[in-house]
């Protein structure tokens, strides 16, 4: 993981010492389950826990010798144990420990992400309420379309992030599976009862059926949901990047005291945070491809997925955590230029009211084609002559009264259903 984008508390859960401690938790949970079932002597797990050793230097020494991390771990952990060491890793294969511990880690990382998403959702909701009735131009294809409100734009972001929060809750359930089922998943040397008891202690569910590993479709789903969250963040960042353009300047990301925008041009305030978030979202999407590839393994298991997962799980969770934290900062400090939003509403000299003008002509008895062609011709003249669409309408349309034409060009008309939309989020 690039240290620049690694934040606490997420980065700490992926360090090697925490990994080894989790492996130990799994081993001790299994020993405790064996004890409860009367398969190994009472007190074995307690003695193992008391005497177990986690020593990174010793682990590295043993791994160098054995070229096998779990054997190195077992040698290290049991190096100070007595008779209880006989039942440490008893009946297990490496993936019983690694995959089950990985699930514990992913659930923990998921909890951190969910907590951060809650904060972001509150920020989005509060911001949408602040700008609920703030008129702004809606754009389609990058072109001025019709008026809307800045609050509705933010509410749209909120709604997507809320769906992603619910997806992540489900992804946490999907990832909360362990397996203590032996070398090929058939429980030949470790009873299913041991798995059930051990996983219960670790707050995991048994895989309904496993091979040597927990099936990787669980992990692929989890990574895909993380990428969806990142994509939602990128959508927010991309919008703000456009709104921060000099010729638009309706919103601007925070620019703190002492910050510099350009080494060459002192006047610059560049949307660097938004651009960074967009770049990180591309990285997040790349993890999805790897996770899907990891689902296709030979027979009961090969380790082609293992090296890839050492990258994608720490990097994906840490990157998204960074993105969530920074997006919350971005939105809390967002600078909104309401006066520019109003100014930009009139940039096209009333062309944004063309649909309403056409519909009113249809109400007066014109066919749709007649009304469309008339309004389009007036709109083209507006572009060519610099006259406003309202003035051209007053001069050239006789079926509508002056008062009716004036009403057509009232921007408040476009926010009449805003409250109704917000009521769909009652109790948020």
At a glance:
It contains 16 helices and six strands. By secondary structure, it is mainly α. It is an enzyme of class 4 (lyase).
Descriptive report:
The protein has 428 residues and is mainly alpha-helical. The protein has 3 domains: 1-90, Fumarase/aspartase (N-terminal domain) (Fumarase C, Chain B, domain 1, Orthogonal Bundle); 93-188 and 204-342, Fumarase/aspartase (Central domain) (Fumarase C, Chain A, domain 2), CATH 1.20.200.10; 351-408, Fumarase/aspartase (C-terminal domain) (Ribonucleotide Reductase Protein R1, domain 1). Helix content is 60%, strand content 5%. The protein is built from 16 helices and 6 strands. It has helices at 16-36, 44-51, 56-66, 69-77, 94-130, 150-175, 192-201, 217-243, 272-293, 304-332, 338-345, 354-363, 368-385, 389-396, 402-408, 418-423, and strands spanning 135-140, 143-149, 177-178, 205-206, 251-252, 335-336. The strands form 3 sheets. Strands 1-2 form a two-stranded antiparallel sheet. Strands 3-4 form a two-stranded parallel sheet. α1 runs antiparallel to α2 (44-51), α6 (150-175) runs antiparallel to α8 (217-243) and α12 (354-363) runs antiparallel to α13 (368-385). The radius of gyration is 30 Å and the shape is elongated. The model has no long low-confidence stretch (mean pLDDT 96). Its EC number is 4.3.2.2. This is Adenylosuccinate lyase. Keywords: Lyase, Purine biosynthesis.
Q: Unreliable runs, pLDDT <50, ≥5 residues?
A: none
Number of strands: 6
Level-2 CATH architecture of the largest domain: Up-down Bundle
| CATH level-four homologous superfamily name of the largest domain | Fumarase/aspartase (Central domain)
List the helices and strands in order: HHHHHEEHEHEHEHHEHHHHHH
Number of distinct helices:
16
Class of the largest domain in CATH?
Mainly Alpha
Specify the overall morphology: elongated
Main sheet: strand order: 1-2
How would you classify the quaternary structure? single chain
* Largest sheet report: 2 strands, antiparallel
Beta-strand portion reads under 5%
């Amino acid at each position: 993981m690039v240290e620049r984008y690694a934040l606490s508390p997420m980065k700490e859960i992926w360090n090697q010492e925490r990994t080894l401690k989790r492996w130990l938790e799994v081993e001790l949970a299994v020993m405790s389950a064996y004890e409860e079932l009367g398969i190994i002597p009472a007190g074995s797990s307690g003695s193992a826990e008391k005497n177990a050793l986690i020593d990174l230097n010793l682990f590295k020494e043993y791994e160098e010798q054995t070229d096998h991390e779990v054997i190195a771990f077992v040698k290290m952990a049991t190096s100070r144990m007595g008779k209880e060491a006989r039942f440490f890793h008893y009946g297990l294969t490496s993936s019983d420990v690694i995959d089950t511990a990985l699930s514990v880690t992913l659930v923990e990382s998921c909890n951190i992400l969910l907590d951060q998403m809650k904060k972001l959702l509150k920020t989005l909701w509060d911001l949408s309420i602040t700008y609920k009735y703030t008129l702004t131009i809606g754009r389609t294809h990058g072109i001025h379309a019709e008026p809307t409100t800045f609050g509705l734009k933010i509410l749209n972001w909120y709604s997507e992030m809320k769906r992603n929060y619910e997806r992540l809750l489900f992804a946490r359930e999907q990832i909360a599976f362990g397996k203590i089922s032996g070398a090929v998943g058939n429980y030949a040397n470790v009873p299913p009862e041991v798995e059930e008891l051990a996983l219960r202690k670790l707050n995991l569910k048994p895989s309904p059926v496993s091979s040597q590993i927990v099936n990787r479709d669980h992990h692929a789903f989890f990574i895909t949901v993380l990428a969806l969250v990142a994509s939602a963040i990128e959508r927010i960042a991309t919008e703000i990047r456009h709104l921060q353009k000099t010729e638009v300047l309706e919103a601007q990301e925070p620019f703190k005291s002492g910050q510099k925008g350009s080494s060459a041009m002192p006047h610059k305030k560049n949307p660097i945070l938004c651009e960074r978030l967009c770049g990180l979202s591309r990285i997040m999407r790349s993890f999805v491809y790897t996770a899907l590839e990891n689902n296709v393994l030979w027979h009961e298991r090969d380790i082609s997925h293992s090296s890839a997962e050492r990258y994608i799980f720490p990097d994906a969770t840490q990157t998204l955590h960074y993105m969530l934290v920074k997006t919350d900062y971005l939105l809390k400090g967002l600078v909104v230029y309401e006066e520019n939003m109003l100014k930009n509403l009139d940039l096209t000299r009333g062309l944004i009211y063309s649909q309403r003008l056409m519909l009113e002509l249809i109400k007066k008895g014109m066919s749709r084609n007649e009304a469309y062609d008339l309004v389009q011709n007036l709109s083209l003249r507006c572009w060519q002559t610099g006259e406003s669409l309202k003035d051209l309408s007053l001069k050239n349309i006789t079926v509508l009264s002056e008062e009716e034409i004036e009403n057509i060009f009232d921007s408040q008309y476009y926010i009449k259903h805003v409250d109704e939309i917000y009521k769909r989020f009652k109790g948020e």
